[in-house]
Amino acid sequence: MRKIYFATLIAAISFFETKAQQDPHYTQYMYNMNVINPAYAGSKENLSFGLLYRKQWVDIEDAPTTATFSGHMPVGRNVGLGLSVISDKIGPVEENNAYADFSYTLNLGGEHKLAFGLKGGLTFHNVGLFSDVYNTLPQENDPAFSENISNTYLNIGSGIFYYTNKYYIAFSVPNMLKSKHLDLRDNGQEREFGSEVSHYFLTAGYVFDLSPNTKFKPFAMLKSAFNAPTSLDVSTNFLFFEKFEIGATYRLEDSFGAMLNYAITPNLRIG
């Protein structure tokens, strides 16, 4: 099964030039927003951090997995700092990202605030062609697959975040620089087989007070990229006693999921 999977993956890469490499897509994006929008850093009163892990197609070997750690905190009255580390893997292709976030917030009066953010960091991309695929190829002397491919790229991003105690709306581009993800040499000529393009995120949310101990929190996220399908996530959560939260999410024409989390402390949430 593993050999068939890898051979199919490499055949797809070889015959179809991939122009848009998708960023990881999170179901509970509302709890680690600084991963996609640096302007979110420092929007909470104290240090906040989160750890997420996602695995698709559980019964399939080398299925896609994504692990994310993120944290952010306010520094003074207007500045926020954040950090995020993302590991994304599918078959022989592995991508690791490390980013630092900076935000500056303007107080527009009352509860209204507008934050601007910048993100900068590195992407480490590795394609283990030799170790995982070499012995599955019909022509073992193919020079294109004779060694692994490892590259490091610089990435920058930006975002804006308008929010009050009841609602927010935000727009961000976490990766603004195009980077090649797989380039193979054929007769001395380098050919680009995959690249990452800019992804655009539009997010919004609102908090309805249903009772003193119950809140209804709908969220939405629109994600778009050049030459890649646009996706829309709609989520609805109920928060009880500021601790226990249950909800559901729907990705348009794609998937449906349930969410459950519990706030151990105001700054530590598991789910």
General description of the model:
This protein has two helices and 16 strands. Strands 1, 2, 3, 4, 5, 6, 7, 10, 11, 12, 13, 14, 15 and 16 form a 14-stranded antiparallel β-sheet that branches. Strands 8-9 form a two-stranded antiparallel ribbon. It is globular, with a radius of gyration of 21 Å. The chain is mainly beta and 271 residues long. It folds into two domains: 27-198, Porin, CATH 2.40.160; 207-270.
Shape: globular
Which class of secondary structure composition applies to the elements?
mainly beta
The CATH C-level name of the largest domain is Mainly Beta
User: How many angstroms separate the termini?
Assistant: 33 Å
Count of the domains:
2
Q: Compute the average pLDDT.
A: 78
Helix count?
2
CATH architecture title of the largest domain = Beta Barrel
- Stretches where pLDDT is under 50 for at least 5 consecutive residues are 1-21
Helix content: under 10%
Quick one: how many beta strands?
16
The percentage of residues in β strands lies in: over 45%
Largest sheet: 14 strands, antiparallel
Per CATH, what is the topology of the largest domain? Answer: Porin
Order of helices and strands: HEEEEEHEEEEEEEEEEE
CA-based gyration radius: 21 Å
Protein name: Type IX secretion system membrane protein PorP/SprF
Pfam family, one: PorP_SprF
InterPro entries: PorP/SprF_Bacteroidetes
Chain-wise SSE layout:
Layout: H1 2-15, E1 48-55, E2 65-75, E3 79-90, E4 93-109, E5 112-127, H2 129-133, E6 149-163, E7 167-173, E8 179-186, E9 189-196, E10 199-206, E11 208-211, E12 214-225, E13 228-240, E14 244-251, E15 255-265, E16 268-270
Antiparallel strand pairs: 1-2, 2-3, 3-4, 4-5, 5-6, 6-7, 7-10, 8-9, 10-12, 11-12, 12-13, 13-14, 14-15, 15-16
